[in-house]
Amino acid sequence: MSQLISIPVLLILLSFQIGVISKFTILNGFGDILIVWLAALVIFEKKSQSWIWFLVSILFTVYISGLPWYATVIGFSQIFILGNFIRKRLWQSPLLSFYLVLTIGSLLFYLISFFSVLTSRVPMIFQESMVKIIMPSLLINLLLSLPVYLIVKDMVYWLYPQEEIP
Amino acid sequence: MKKGSFKNWQPIVIGLAILGVTILAISGLLGRIIGSVASPLVDTQTWVSKRIQAFEDFLTVPRDVTILQQENANLKNEISQLQAEVLILKQQVSETEILYALLDFARSRPENKYIAASVIGRDPSPFLNYIIIDHGSDDGIFKGMPVVTQQGLVGRVDAVITTAARVQLITDPNSTVNVRLEKAKTDAQVSGTISGDLSLEMINLDVNLEQGDLVLTSGLGGSFPADVLLGQVLSIVRDNKSLFQQATIQPVVDFTTLRAVLVITNFKPVDFSVLTDN
Q1: Residue among B166, B174, B195 whose CB faces A28 most closely
Q2: What ipTM, to 2 d.p.?
């Protein structure tokens, strides 16, 4: 039942993303609060139920975004797999795990987005995309990371009080 | 005899006294006399009254401070409410100005039917230049409809749900618009780029392209109505080894501050999917 909260929380986050965060740009890139949120969640959520959050995020994003649906599915899924992989190996330092998941996950997500748009017969230059979109977006994600990390930590502690949050 | 004579004189004396007082009053001498008699009494009363007032103030001032503090808090509260109202009204004035501008544009082109919509968000992916508007199929908006502002072309409706629609901006890398150049009198294509700029392509090398030349939709292809302004030629790239010359367009619409748009509802885009599928 506690997973049901993912729907209103992700709706609020998505609304915040399309209404506010997408307006704050560096060059042509802007942050993605869903990626940051899910990267933090997959580190703290030890009941292996974070897949519901990922599933809801995929559904909402596919519904709203003009990005090809498979890009969103692959993009969020790789963060989930990467997050679980890193958490199991670096469980003693969640902050380091979080930043690893966020950096690698965001980078892969944007690369997947780039290639999905490229395969839609859109002429795009990789180097230009990297400089103008991918790296600035990654930087904004890192700027958003710490407050989101703390909020997710509190939220998981509130949802699952029996778990020890490092 | 003596007693009787005094009794006879008594009314006369009283009458003379009244007469005398009346004469003194008429002559103004009585006021001075009364004033000199009443003055000490008035002074005494004033002194007593001031002391009583001071004592009363001493008792009531703390209560007044409380009342004043309450009034001050109420007034501050009222000021905050009024400031909030002023902000709302300023926002409404700003929105009204935008709507008036859109209305002027709509009136200048009576052949088209428009639906005004507010921009409520942007696509979550930075690779796409899409906006989300607050009107959908319930309002008669369908896929492919052109979207404009009072300044010029914005894009076209890409996806619709009942209460909202997603609009592909002309700056999107996947967007192509057939245009004509007003001075050069030639057709070309405008494409979006990932940096959000507009690129003018497919112009023959023999065309004399000039900076500042107006770029308008040509109507070719049936995706957009003709003669809607896109922008002006900003910089020209001419390479004799290339087949075509290129140019950068300065769009007339500021896509970063887009708040309201008009969807042209009576324009039916031509569907080429049947031809391309075959």
Answers
A1: B195
A2: 0.90
